[in-house]
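Fold sample X.
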Amino acid sequence: QLQLVESGGGLVQPGGSLRLSCAASRFTVRDYVIGWFRQAPGKEREGVSWISPSGSSTHCADSMKGRFTISRDNAKNTVYLQMNSLKPEDTAVYYCAAAPYVLGSVCDRQAFDKIGSWGQGTQVTVSS
C-alpha cells in the first residue's frame, strides 16, 4: 500500500509562510498524480493544488494562485506545498493524496478516494 507522510504544519501569523512536505514510500511520486487537499473544521475536504507525473501543476481555487506553489523533488521522493501570504481562512488540516491516474476532477477528493491513498494530515493554523 502506498504510504504518504505530511509534515511542516504549525502555527503561523497572518502574512507568514509555511512549506508542507509530503514524503512518499513504497512508490515513486513522479509516476503518480499527487494532490494537496485541506479540511477546515465543519467543512468538506477541498482541493488545493496538484501535480501530474509530467510535472504540470495547477491550483484548485483562485484564492490560492500567487500564494501557493506545488513542487516535486524526485530525488527525495517528496512533494512540497509552499504557502505564502497565509490568511486565517487557510487554517485547516492539510492532506496529500496519490493516485496512479485520476478519473473526474483532480480537485475532487473522490478522484483519490477511489484508487488512491492519503496521508494522515498536518495541521496549519494561521492566527495572530
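Fold sample Y, listed below.
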Amino acid sequence: QVQLVESGGGSVQAGDSLRLSCAASGLTFSEYAMGWFRQVPGNDREFVAVISWSGRTTFYADSVKGRFTISRDNAKDTVILQMNNLKVEDTAVYYCAARLGRQAAAQATDIGTIHYWGQGTQVTVSS
C-alpha cells in the first residue's frame, strides 16, 4: 500500500519560511518523479514543483520560482519543499504527489498523470 505523508504545514506571516516534508512508503521511491501541488477551496488543484528521480531536474510554477525549492533524499524516501518569502496567495492545502517513471519529471507537472497523492497539509500565510 502506497502512502505519502506530508508534514510541516502551519500558519505564518508573509515573508516567513516553511519547510514541507513528504515521507513515502510502499513504493520504490527512486522510480518516481515527486512533486507538490496545492489547492484553495473552490479552485482546481495546481502544480507547484516537481523533481526527477535523480534530483537533477526540477520544474517550478512561475508563481513560486525563486522562492520555493524542491529536493529529495532517495536514501530516506523523502521529498522536501522549502518555501521562503511566503505570500498571502500561497495559502492553500499542499499535496505531495508521485508519478512513476525515471523520465517523468516533465509529465509530472500535469495533474492528470499523477499516480499517488498524499492527504495534504494546510499552509496559511497572513499579512
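Sample Y note: The longest strand covers residues 92-100.
Also: The CA atoms of residues 98 and 116 lie 5 Å apart.
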